[in-house]
Every structure is written in C-alpha cells, then in structure tokens.
C-alpha cells in the first residue's frame, strides 16, 4: 500500500473518531459542565485588581468595568501619559487607582511592583492583559517580529503570573486571568507569530488551572475575537475582522466570566464556535482552508518578497 493511501486511510479514521468523540461529548458534556461549575465555586467580588496593558483597549475596558467605590485597581503599561488619562476615568467611577509605567518584558521590575502591591493589600485578581499583534511591531517581517512579539505576549504573561502565584497559593485564594485570543484555536498564514503566542498562553493557562485549582486559586484564559482597539484599527488595513465588538460589551463578558471563575472565556459566540470547529478539523482540511483564504499581498510583505 502506498504512503498516499495510508495517509488517506488515517484521514478517514480521524474523521470517524472525531464524530464518535463529538457524540460522546454531547452525551456526557452537560454533566461535566455542571460539575465544573460546582468546582469553580461561588461568584467572586474582587476588591484589589492588577491589570497589565491598562492604558488602552481591553485593559482600559476591564478597568472601567470593575471600577466602583471600594475597589482598588492597579494599572501598568509603558505609556505613562495614556495611563494617567485612563486612571482619571476609572477614578471618576469611584475606584482607587494606582499606576505604574513599566514594560512587561522587565521581569525584575514587574516582580517588584506586583509583590509590593500584594504586600500592601492582597491582590484578588491579576489580569495578564498586555500584548501586541503582528501589525503593531515596528517591522513587518515575520523573522524580525517574532522575538519581540513573543517577549511581550508570552514572557510578559510569565512575568505577570509568576510573581503573584506563590502568594495566592499560600493564602488559598485569588484569581489569575491571561489574555489569549480566538486566534489560539486556529492558524492564519499571515499571522503565524501572533497565533503561536496566543496558543502558548492558552495552553499555559489551561495547564496551570489544574495545578492552582487544588489550592483554591482560580485561573481563567480569555479568548476574545475582534474588539475595537488601536490594535484592531491597524489590523483592519490588512485582514477582514468579522464579528467586531465594541470594548464595553466585551469587558462585561470578561468580567462576568472572571467573577464566576470560568476556565475559558471565549466570545463572541458565533465566531468562537467557528474558530473552534475549524481548529478541531483534520489537518488537510485546515491546510486547504488556510491556503484558500490567504492574503497574498500581506504574506509577501511579511516574507519580504518583492
């Protein structure tokens, strides 16, 4: 039997197994969902929150969503001027606000800030939100853009999570959230560096949830679709942005999911369903679809092909 026939047989077997698995999931899924919600515990009321990348976009929207009297919100970002503007808006809603101008890639400084804030008032919720897209890195070439993007999107998450993790485990309470993306469920040829970074932090979050949950520490991964921000404003020039959401309703969904300790907060529903179905398809199907909808001009620019 030729290798091509063997590959085809494997493809058919994979399709059959996926159908069987989906049928089993439909049968036992509701029971598992109920058990997971029971294990997640009661709804949380966060009083001391730290958000990285709090100067714009989803970070700003989350800060405004959580802001109310009696809540202390710590915002970090590189842009001090923009942080000041956001802090004023958050303060206007009655929350106490503290800002730190810091780059999430600076592990030593991040640890110093997080541990100092936690020592002053124990942090209830830490959101590792800071991130960039392929389009916001100064160079369009994927080879040059990948390292700085991974430093922010992946190492920046580690620099935010690890300094608070031990304290939360010791006191047996707290919630950590990591900003991933629906891009973590599928791959798009033009944005391989971005998809890789978001898949990495989603895998990290889902793994850590099992570890931290044993000590009553929640871990959620947020997987939004396209939300209005400076990042999506730049992305619009190169790729279509289906199901684009305003920041305020997106923040409301994230806030509700974090308060309920939901494991994966993925939205909006239609786009989430499509991306997860696409990501679960056999490799030949994913490859065919990806190549069929590639933006040739953007790919050429990223590969520096004339």
Automatic annotation (TrEMBL):
TM region(s), chain numbering: 15-35
Key words of the record: Membrane, Oxidoreductase, Transmembrane, Transmembrane helix
InterPro entries assigned: KR_dom, NAD(P)-bd_dom_sf, SDR_fam
Phylogenetic lineage: Eukaryota, Filasterea, Capsaspora
Gene Ontology CC annotations of this record: membrane
Superkingdom to which the source organism belongs: Eukaryota
Protein name as annotated: Ketoreductase domain-containing protein
Domain Ketoreductase: 47-230
Gene3D superfamilies: NAD(P)-binding Rossmann-like Domain (3.40.50.720)
One function term, GO molecular function aspect: oxidoreductase activity
Similarity field: Belongs to the short-chain dehydrogenases/reductases (SDR) family.
Keyword Oxidoreductase (UniProt): yes
């Amino acid at each position: 039997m030729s290798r091509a026939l063997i590959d085809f047989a494997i493809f058919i077997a994979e399709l059959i197994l996926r159908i069987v698995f989906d049928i089993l999931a439909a049968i036992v899924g509701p029971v598992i969902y109920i058990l997971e919600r029971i294990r997640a515990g009661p709804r949380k009321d966060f009083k001391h929150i730290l958000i990285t990348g709090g100067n714009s976009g989803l970070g700003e929207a989350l800060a405004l969503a959580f802001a109310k009297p009696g809540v202390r919100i710590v915002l970090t970002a590189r842009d001090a001027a923009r942080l000041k503007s956001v802090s004023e808006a958050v303060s206007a809603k009655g929350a106490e606000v503290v800002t730190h101008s810091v780059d999430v890639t600076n592990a030593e400084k991040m640890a110093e800030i997080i541990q100092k804030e936690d020592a002053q008032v124990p942090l209830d919720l830490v959101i590792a939100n800071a991130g960039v897209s392929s389009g916001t890195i100064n160079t369009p070439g994927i080879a040059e853009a990948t390292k700085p993007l991974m430093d922010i999107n992946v190492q920046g998450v580690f620099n935010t999570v690890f300094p608070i993790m031990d304290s939360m485990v010791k006191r047996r309470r707290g919630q950590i959230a990591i900003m991933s993306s629906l891009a973590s469920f599928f791959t798009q040829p033009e944005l391989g560096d971005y998809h890789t970074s978001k898949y990495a932090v989603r895998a990290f979050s889902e793994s850590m949830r099992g570890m931290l949950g044993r000590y009553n520490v929640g871990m959620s991964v947020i997987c939004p679709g396209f939300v209005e921000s400076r990042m999506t404003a730049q992305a619009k020039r190169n790729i279509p942005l289906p199901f684009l959401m305003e920041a305020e309703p997106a923040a409301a969904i994230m806030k509700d999911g974090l308060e309920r300790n939901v494991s994966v907060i993925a939205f909006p529903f239609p786009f989430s369903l499509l991306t997860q179905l696409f990501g679960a398809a056999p490799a030949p199907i994913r490859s065919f679809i990806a190549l069929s909808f590639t933006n040739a001009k953007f790919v050429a620019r990223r590969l520096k092909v004339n």
